[in-house]
Amino acid sequence: MNTFVKLIKSTLIIFHMGDDKSGAYAGFGVRFAALIIDLFIIFFILQSPIHRIMIRSSISLLQGSILEIGFLLLVFILYDIYLTYYFGSTIGKKLLGIMVVNKKKVKLSLIDSVARHFSKWISTLTLGIGYLMILWDDKKQALHDRISNTYVIDNPKRRIGNNLRNILVLIIVTFVIIYVYYLITLLAFGFKIALDSQQESLSKVNTLNSIFAKCNSTLPFYSDICYSIYANKVEFKRLDLAVKLDFCHNIHNKNQHLNCISTIAVYERNASLCSNSRSTYLSQICKKSYNATVSLVEKYYPEKEFILNGTLNVTEIKFGLWSGSSCLELQNYEFLQEDLFCFQVNNVTGFVKDEDGLNWYDVAVKQYKNGNLIDDQIEVYGKDGQVDLKNNFLDSAGMHSRLNGTLPGTYSYQVAIYDKIGMRGNYYNKTIEVIDLPIDKLNIQGKLLGLEIGDNCIQKHTDVYTNRDAICYYPLNVSGFNATIDNLYIFTMDILFRNQSGEIFYESKGIYSDEDPRILRNGILNLFPDVGVREDLDFFHLVAMNLL
Q: Which of 106, 462, 490, 529 is most exposed, with minimal Cβ within 10 Å?
């Protein structure tokens, strides 16, 4: 508390009020407080009804914003010029008992009032230094006062006592300091959260719980900012619509809540979602924001026109699972989030060469969920597709994409192989299902967990290891795999270490992802000791753990 009192006293010294006697020059503090009162009248009291009128009108958000700012600026200019000319002071100056005079200590003429007002713009353009001149000038003149040859003095007829005025100035200055501190705090929190959101990924399985855990705070405004920022993450945008809208209702601040709803509406390209805002007024703001955002995106980031004028001759087309060297078709198109979905065409003809004798082929991919376009890539190969094809014949081309940013659900792909020179190509469509990792779907008859010694895995009598050991794990006689159309099998293994609290503190995934597909007799994996995992424990601290 003492620190706060000292801060206020220091503020009073810096924001010098001026002398007590009538007619003395007014100091920085009382003039600053008067300006805050005037700005509050113009930009808070008048701005709110004007803003509501603009929002409820039929004009666009951009047009409304320009008209609103222009109108308020015009009102402020007339307010300052007329009141200073007619009364010698604005409402703020009148309340605090100060007035503007010329060198003869009388009210300004209309021309002087106009000159003084527009001289303020010069003080503003100096980044506020023109105003700070009041602090060290003998006659408490700001830059615009010197330019217009005017002074601000205590009004001889003022009805407010000096002590009461000082208290009012102190209250206003304190409020401004607290408000500025609040804004700086919000900016600092927002910057930190935005930085963290770029560096940290969200859980694909439990996205909402992941956001709630990261945004948990005793400060409501911190949680609201955090929720709003994470609502722009790709993982959140790909959640089901009902889940996303329900998430927005966890945000208490109306502006952050509105931002959350607007983000979803723009992503879903559905302005009607704005009706989920908390009031009709906020819904109207959301719709105008939606229209403005979509218009800007369409203007500056138009969808590239992609029209094919003919077809290519393709012998073989495959959609499936990428094995590391080829695209394997599946009997059912179910994929895990860590799989590599692939498209491949073989033996393609019909290309033409350019003036330099080169061909240029490429692959275009569009991904849809619930009929909404969520990913669009026209050039997969880019410059790498500019080659010299012998006899205009392409052996193989395609694409593969890991589904680790894709949540469980049904997705549709539209893929095209095309000739960029002749703009001829073929479209192909495939619908796939992304599923969660099934638990206990495979049948494991046995397992070996032990100590790695040389090329052998020795089972121990106890599950106690030192950080000098190497732990080994081998599954035995595993069945339940699904085969590809060619009766091949692809498998991989993950190793997860959990502590006693169940938290994963180490993991290694996709250990066999790059292996070629194998033939399993009767669909049973029994390749001990070729298939297993081995991990050194030299970097582990003393901990009780579970190996999954």
A: 462
